[in-house]
Amino acid sequence: MKVAVIGGGVIGLALGWRLAQRGVDVVVFERDAAGSGASHAAAGMLAAACEAEPGEAALGGLNRASLALWPAFAAEVEAASGLPVGLRCEGTLLVALNRDDAAKLRHDMAFQHSQGIDLAWLTPAQAREREPYLAPQLAGAVFSPGDIQVDNRAVVAALIEAFRRAGGVLHEQAPVERVAVADGRATGVVVAGAVHAADVVVLAAGAWSGGIDLPIARPPVRPVKGQMLSVQMDPDAPLLRHVVWAPKAYLVPRADGRLIVGATVEERGFDARITAGGLYSLLDGAWRALPGIEELPVIETWVGFRPGSRDDAPILGPSALPGLMFATGHHRNGILLTPVTAEAMATTILDGVTDPRIAAFGIGRFDRLRHAA
Ligand SMILES: Cc1cc2nc3c(=O)[nH]c(=O)nc-3n(C[C@H](O)[C@H](O)[C@H](O)COP(=O)(O)OP(=O)(O)OC[C@H]3O[C@@H](n4cnc5c(N)ncnc54)[C@H](O)[C@@H]3O)c2cc1C
Known about the structure:
The protein is of the alpha/beta class.
């Protein structure tokens, strides 16, 4: 079987790797450099527990299923590539800076406990025992041991290597112009005017998935802009070890001393500008939780585009065009959802039957929503 994947982000690469491991002839076509889209921009939080929200039961289940796969997935990618992916398991602290924040955290925690999620309330003193540099006026915190993190840029590098070692072919600087169609089914992709034949085509072009020419309705995916920055801590005496969620920013410490501060959420199309207001809100939000950040040198600022779908859940599985599959719309949790997406999509392609784990996430749900309205 021949599979052509459009997009070399974490989703396209991980799916390509899983298929190549199972003997499939896979080619990933990437418009730019592999992993240069949202997969480069992300913070790498694997936040299935503290992001659990009422009304998102199906997505919450998928998030938690993928989180459970991450430790073994990380170990397998590292072994297959010889490269580290920076999985860190200190967990996450959600901090309250005043009584209102604390009331909100307690309210959310009640729901998360009802879902069987392991979270603990910490007094300000207990929170500062874990993270001594947190702001002195803390009103309390929630400790979420299950919300861990990975270095998403390292994951991209490892997946590229693992994919190639498994026999996959990666074409970079190779934008797909359209999906080739004959007799009512996808037959490959068109790149630089030439058709590359495939039995199955997978659209995994992240926030750009809605812009590729198809003979059917395009998947409803839009870019959700996020600005981020990083500062440099002393790796031997870092200001933070846990991921910290403050009310207006999150902070993600990497093993090499980088501290990532994110992220704005903006509906501005593909506007890649970094704005004073964006950086100000991130730094202000971070400084209120971790005042010592003001001494640290800024090392990078950047923008990424989350692939947001109409209901914020991914779009996975067969499309209305035989031979064309979707693996897109992962919005703010695409790094978290990489292992389950890759495994379930590979099974769906190879068995010809939708993997039950992704059955609720097909494109058809948007038709059902329209008819129900
Ligand atoms: C600021 C920010 C913070 C985030 N933080 C987190 C986080 O902490 N945890 C988490 O789980 N997720 C996070 N995310 C979300 C996560 O980054 C995405 O959901 C995930 O990276 C999506 O992966 P992807 O492979 O679908 O998309 P991408 O990584 O964007 O890859 C799509 C690729 O397709 C390529 N492409 C586009 N058009 C074409 C074409 N015509 N032909 C060929 N190739 C094409 C692009 O160049 C790109 O490389 C964050 C995102 C942002 C922006």
